[in-house]
Amino acid sequence: MTQHVSIETHGACVDFPIFDAKSRSLKKAFLGKAGGSIGRNDSDVVVVEALKDITLSLKEGDRVGLVGHNGAGKSTLLRLLSGIYEPTRGSARIRGRVAPVFDLGVGMDPEISGYENIIIRGLFLGQTRKQMLAKMDEIAEFTELGEYLSMPLRTYSTGMRVRVAMGVVTSIDPEILLLDEGIGAVDAEFMKKARIRLQKLVERSGILVFASHSNEFLAQLCDSAMWIDHGQVRMHGEIEDVVRAYEGPEAASHVARTIAEIAAEKAGVARGEGA
Ligand SMILES: Nc1ncnc2c1ncn2[C@@H]1O[C@H](COP(=O)(O)OP(=O)(O)OP(=O)(O)O)[C@@H](O)[C@H]1O
Ligand SMILES: [Mg+2]
């Protein structure tokens, strides 16, 4: 059904022109530890080169985790793959319905109730009102917010809002799921429950691209990793190998253990053990 789902980019670059940069002293391209390189374009305007020459091809079933330093270009790449950003040079072709989950707060209105926000946020993620109404009871139960769902969202704590957002996000059936971390802010008990739902969401998604600084999370949701370094793809392969190259042997063996644990857990579930 979702065979047509694919993402392809060829030599895609994303530059951000910074017209108010104070950069008399900026003579040559600067490459710091964090952030993309800063240079100048043909019109001598200072630009942040957030992505450089990205060529990739993703198809149905691909689950890619993005790793890389702060400012490497992970979030920018997700925005390129969602169609929010057009490449400055090169091309990006996206086939399939995209559910961008970059900021759990987007599409939430503090003045309307939790219930109403569930519908609004669902619409933002490409669902219909009817689909959201059909899922309402199940989402409400997941959030454990009870009567609060009838109250305006401004009366919620941060974690309570995240529960609403997570409930909605994990209820949809996306063709292309683009996740940018920030999925924290909920208490540990709830996170356990949310992880299982997140895993199921990923299983029914066509393509997943997930940016995260948590290797454990990557190991759980993805089957390959892509290392983004100063706006370029440095490596794409097995999660363990990419983490070894990016972070070293200790982090890699932690990933290997996590993957083994998940596999054992899945085998246990398949045999009907545990809950
Ligand atoms: N709207 C913008 N305007 C100007 N520069 C931007 C903009 N968004 C991102 N950048 C720059 O693009 C580069 C890549 O940023 P991006 O947010 O994609 O990094 P990231 O890999 O997601 O980092 P992090 O791990 O910190 O989330 C950085 O140098 C950043 O300063
Ligand atoms: Mg980011």
SSE layout and pairings?
Layout: E1 6-17, E2 37-40, E3 46-59, E4 63-67, H1 74-82, E5 89-95, E6 98-101, H2 114-124, H3 129-143, H4 158-169, E7 176-180, H5 188-203, E8 207-211, H6 215-221, E9 224-229, E10 232-237, H7 239-247, H8 249-270
Parallel strand pairs: 4-8, 4-9, 6-7, 7-8
Antiparallel strand pairs: 1-3, 1-5, 2-3, 9-10
Helix pairs in contact: 2-3, 2-4, 3-4, 6-8, 7-8
Bound molecules: adenosine-5'-triphosphate (ATP) and magnesium ion.
Can you describe what's shown?
- This protein is of the alpha/beta class.
- The protein has two domains: 6-97 and 174-270, Rossmann fold (3-Layer(aba) Sandwich), CATH 3.40.50.300; 107-173.
- Helix content is 37%, strand content 25%.
- The chain contains eight helices and ten strands.
- It has helices at 74-82, 114-124, 129-143, 158-169, 188-203, 215-221, 239-247, 249-270, and strands at 6-17, 37-40, 46-59, 63-67, 89-95, 98-101, 176-180, 207-211, 224-229, 232-237.
- Strands 6-7-8-4-9-10 form a six-stranded mixed β-sheet, sandwiched between helices.
- Strand 9 and strand 10 form a beta hairpin.
- Helix 2 (114-124) packs across helix 4.
- Magnesium ion (MG) binds next to helix 1.
- Magnesium ion binds next to helix 1.
- Residues 26-255 form the ABC transporter domain.
- Belongs to the ABC transporter superfamily.
- GO terms for molecular function: ABC-type transporter activity; ATP binding; ATP hydrolysis activity.
